[in-house]
Amino acid sequence: MSAAKPRYQELKDFIIAKISSGELQPADRVPSENELVESKRVSRMTANRALRELNDEGYVERVAGRGTFVSDYRSRSDLLEVQNIAEEIARRGNTHSSRVLRQSQQHARGEIAKALHVDQGTAIFHLLLVHFENNVPIQVEDRHVLASFAPDCLEQDFDVVTPSGYLTGIAPLQEAEQAVRAVMPNEAVRKYLEMDTGEACLVVIRRTWTKGRPVTFSRLHHPGSRYELTGHYTPPGSPRTPSSHVVQLEKLRQ
């Protein structure tokens, strides 16, 4: 018989479920400590711990004097954050489209099992897509998804919604890590991206977590001559310079 969950964990699961289902949207107000104490009949200490841990894990943001609000996972859009490529392309005023090359179930082996912290043979889904910007190939997405996290993954039409959009709709992104490397692509990637011989790729290697566990592992290949990653970092507590006062790096000549 499995042990009963602590009450604070039940409260966390209750709020996470509302976020995951879309009942609570980014920037929506989350029930306060007082409201949780009254509606869920828990102690103030229990309610405080649940909200504090949800804040620490990135699900919500607690604003002094105002309340607790669902974090906006979709508003970040530079190399320092995880991006949905369809939204990234739309922000540039261009049109996104994609072509699905592979959408299958496999058994985790080797580095995939290691990256996802699962046993060899665990069920995973493999997604391989080419993303286009104004009909020009801009990214090959090679993604592995833990099957238990997204059991209906193979039923999705990824010509309509990107894997990133689908997965963040299941549960909010809790944590991510990524590395960027310059590599020479294999012939398949070179063909998909319509690259010249001798041209290098920018590869973003990304792993994402939800509910305390890694759930996706991806390699995102981009043609080096047609893609760049940019970011603007502001130290905590420092005001951000208005964009009108800054010459954007991409507008500067090499």
Mean pLDDT: 83
Strand order of the largest sheet: 4-5-6-9-8-7
Element-level helix/strand string: HEHHEEHEHEEHEHEE
Q: Provide the CATH superfamily of the largest domain.
A: Chorismate lyase-like
Strand content: 25-35%
Poorly predicted parts: 73-78, 243-254
CATH topology heading of the largest domain: Chorismate lyase
- As a percent range, the share of helical residues equals 25-40%
The number of helical segments is 7
Number of strands: 9
Shape: elongated
Please provide a written account of the structure:
By secondary structure, the protein is α+β, with helices and mostly antiparallel strands. The protein has 2 domains: 7-70, Orthogonal Bundle (Arc Repressor Mutant, subunit A), CATH 1.10.10.10; 93-223, Chorismate lyase, CATH 3.40.1410. The chain is built from 7 helices and 9 strands. It has helices at residues 7-21, 33-40, 44-56, 85-91, 110-116, 163-170, 187-192; strands spanning 29-30, 60-63, 67-70, 96-107, 123-133, 136-146, 175-183, 201-210, 213-223. It has a 6-stranded antiparallel β-sheet with strand order 4-5-6-9-8-7. A hairpin with a 2-residue loop joins strand 5 and strand 6 (136-146). Helix 1 (7-21) crosses helix 3 (44-56) and helix 2 (33-40) crosses helix 3. 27% of the residues are buried. Residues 73-78 and 243-254 have low confidence and may be disordered.
Write the layout of secondary structure elements.
Elements (H helix, E strand, L loop, with lengths): L6 H15 L7 E2 L2 H8 L3 H13 L3 E4 L3 E4 L14 H7 L4 E12 L2 H7 L6 E11 L2 E11 L16 H8 L4 E9 L3 H6 L8 E10 L2 E11 L31
Antiparallel strand pairs: 1-3, 2-3, 4-5, 5-6, 6-9, 7-8, 8-9
Helix pairs in contact: 1-3, 2-3
